[in-house]
Amino acid sequence: MNLNATFIAQIVVFLVFAWFTMKFVWPPITKALDERASKIADGLAAADKAKTNLALTEKRVSDELKKARESAATVRGGAEQQAAAIVEEARAEATRIVAAAREAAQTEAAVAAQRAREELRSQVAVLAVAGAERILRREINAEVHADLLTNLKQELS
């Protein structure tokens, strides 16, 4: 065999093999590689998007927490003011109750003192009659001398 004929046959076989590979083998491989590259690019884009979304979500969460803290501070301040107002109302009510009780006690004491004076006057009148009876050693008719007893009560007042 001739070296040139073998060389030409090998070139022809190589060209047929290259054409066959480029026509039937190469496109599925490039297609698979392109799909793989596309999936990787999509995955990287999704990861970047997820990072961006995570950063935005963290910012929104921190903003919401800040708002919630401010709202809680406002509510706490309102509650403290309301509690102070309730305490003041209770103090004012207690003061009113104490004043009313003091006034009622003073009125009751005045009424009791007046009753005691009236009772004392009656007892003094009885004692005066008894004393006069002993002095005179005779019985005095209380019905006859009612005016005398009334005048005596008025003088003691």
UniProtKB/TrEMBL annotation:
Keywords: ATP synthesis, Cell membrane, CF(0), Hydrogen ion transport, Ion transport, Membrane, Transmembrane, Transmembrane helix, Transport. It is a single-pass membrane protein. The keyword Nucleotide-binding does not apply. Gene3D superfamilies: 6.10.250.1580. It holds the Pfam family ATP-synt_B. GO terms for cellular component: endomembrane system; plasma membrane; proton-transporting ATP synthase complex. GO terms for molecular function: proton-transporting ATP synthase activity, rotational mechanism; proton-transporting ATPase activity, rotational mechanism. It is found in: Cell membrane; Endomembrane system. The chain crosses the membrane at residues 6-26. It comes from the Bacteria. Belongs to the ATPase B chain family. F-type ATPases have 2 components, F(1) - the catalytic core - and F(0) - the membrane proton channel. F(1) has five subunits: alpha(3), beta(3), gamma(1), delta(1), epsilon(1). F(0) has four main subunits: a(1), b(2) and c(10-14). The alpha and beta chains form an alternating ring which encloses part of the gamma chain. F(1) is attached to F(0) by a central stalk formed by the gamma and epsilon chains, while a peripheral stalk is formed by the delta and b chains. F-type ATPases have 2 components, F(1) - the catalytic core - and F(0) - the membrane proton channel. F(1) has five subunits: alpha(3), beta(3), gamma(1), delta(1), epsilon(1). F(0) has three main subunits: a(1), b(2) and c(10-14). The alpha and beta chains form an alternating ring which encloses part of the gamma chain. F(1) is attached to F(0) by a central stalk formed by the gamma and epsilon chains, while a peripheral stalk is formed by the delta and b chains. F(1)F(0) ATP synthase produces ATP from ADP in the presence of a proton or sodium gradient. F-type ATPases consist of two structural domains, F(1) containing the extramembraneous catalytic core and F(0) containing the membrane proton channel, linked together by a central stalk and a peripheral stalk. During catalysis, ATP synthesis in the catalytic domain of F(1) is coupled via a rotary mechanism of the central stalk subunits to proton translocation. Component of the F(0) channel, it forms part of the peripheral stalk, linking F(1) to F(0). The b'-subunit is a diverged and duplicated form of b found in plants and photosynthetic bacteria. This is ATP synthase subunit b. It comes from Candidatus Dactylopiibacterium carminicum. The gene is atpF.
